[in-house]
User: What shape does this take?
Amino acid sequence: MRDYQGNLTLTDRDYYLNNAVYSAVEYPASPPIRGISYLRGSSIPVTVRIVNHGPYDLVGWITFDDARLASPGPNTYDSFTGTWSNPPEYRTLAIAPFMEYLELPAGSQVDLQIELSGTPNFVALGDIQVKYDMPLWRESDSFLGNNGTLGTFDSWERLFLVDATPIAPQAVPWADYLEYTCRWAFGHTGDPNVKTWMTRGMHYSLRSATSRARYLPSGVWFYPIFFDGNIAVEAPYNLGLLTALLDSQFWTELDCRDFAGGLQIALSQHGHSSTPHLLTGSFDGQIHGFTTNLLCPAGTDSTIPSNYSAYGFNFHVVTNEWTGQYIDASTSYRYDPYGVTYNNPATEWALPEYWQNDIGTRYSGLVAGTFYQGNWEDLVPLYEPIVVFPVEGLIFTLP
Amino acid sequence: MNSLTLFLLFGAMQDSPMIDTRVLTSRGMELILGGTSLRQRANGQWTVLCRGIRRADTAFVGVRFDEADQRTFVVAKLNTALSNPPIVRGSASGLPLGVDAIRLYDDSDARLHIATGYGQIVVEFGINGTISARGSRVAPPQDWAQWDPWIEDFARSIVARSVNRRLEPAPTSRIDGTDVETFRCRISEGKYYKLRDWATARDYTIRVEENLVRLNRGTREVVVPVGAAKVKVSGRWIDLPDLVAERNGSWYVPEEIDRVAR
Assistant: This one.
């Protein structure tokens, strides 16, 4: 049994169902916990309980030989098998003390206090793996056995390293979503890197070779933001369904509001605040749909120019982060607001340029113009965006 | 309408299944996530949200149904005036569906949005696909003509159930000396007749076809599609104030049928 100290309180879609959280690992947990979480770079104090279930008195040593973090590596394609995977990356952890003397009378137990250090000082995840030797003598006849790992690594818990103390709406993060958010922003720290790479990571499903999100405009959504709602004070986000879909499918179809809400939740797990905004246009004093500039939905190869299209949207939901800039994981933008080839999801553009920017020959940004009767020639330039809502609160619901 | 009223309206009906899983299983699909019955979300809204998949070819179907939201036309993210993919108004069969319906087709994804007057239904379907060597989705183009009939059948069954759950028994009506089983909509308080009783009272013969009932009397024909807010009387579509419902093989129509097709 291992009991971790100083870790962040977590929950997940199974525990949340029962309004439950867990702050430590107490085996056996039911339902099984999905992992533990610390701030990046933290040292991890662990109580390891060794129990002698047998009828004989035992003495010996435990020697911790090695520890490491086994993380899912970048998405990797095997051209021979035609399959994708995330081959593990290993990072060495320090473990102390190196050796402990053990005296275990029949039926007794001993608690060892150890500490794992040298965890990555960036957003990361992986299995804690430990290699140890544990020769034990039966005192009655000096028979020698070994309960160690015999030169191999033993996998302990899944570790999630977050960038900063989690905040609402995920002040108590869901471990099943940390499994993805730590992949998407893996290797990054602080603002603006975590914001940028969380957006890109969600868009490109980084380190998630077989669990990818793709953008299906006007598909089924699970973050119910309606066009005709002016203020969504409390919006339920079906995070349970999102994580279950990500866990179970190659591709998970998401609407723009799902990306925006999912990105807000992802950033909040790592201590960064943001708010989904529903953007639409006004023309002649009325709310009006718009024609976008060239977009490439997540899940489609954004390096190929022919994969970009203009869309007719009634609205678009994006995430607005604390510096007033818009971040959008749902789609790659062919050009940035200044007309320069970009081919990536938006991560750093503020209004009004993000919405529409006059670059002389045309209007760049999200919006190319408005439209009448479906004629491209009738595109009418530049009108003001309306932020229909920010969501003031966000709550979670289950399938 | 406040949340207490909504609770009184819908609270007792939360277990009524909205998704006919037989339609899915008949096509080799299994429901993998979500539920088939309405659930009240944390904001008080009643919703059905589920996903099905056919593992053999990664075909998928997703359904979202939101009630307690009066809608007379579809509000979709993609705009009808200029869209990629193009939007097609109405159902694939050409029969009216809901009070409004639109379809959107990509090569391997399609969506059907239906406004029911008291809710909105979205059905998405297609091929989930695989991952290319460059990391993007690969999914074969679909022949939507093959998919459309059963997707429409599936959608109509959801629409019909969404109406059924609003109906409650009302005192029997008497039309031309015939007893007509009658229901009342809990929300609009509109009256519904059992179609077979009403047709008998008005001397119509009845023929049930795929997704519609055909009534004949002399040279007059009345076409009644399930889940639609229109009936076709002698070749002309006429609006009804609410949708046609179907439950366990019985059909129910708003009482206005007696005004437009008596």
Remarks:
- Helices of chain B lie at 3-10, 21-25, 144-164, 195-201, 257-260.
- Residues 1-14 of chain B have pLDDT under 50 and may be disordered.
- The radius of gyration of chain B is 19 Å.
- The CA atoms of residues 207 and 214 of chain B lie 5 Å apart.
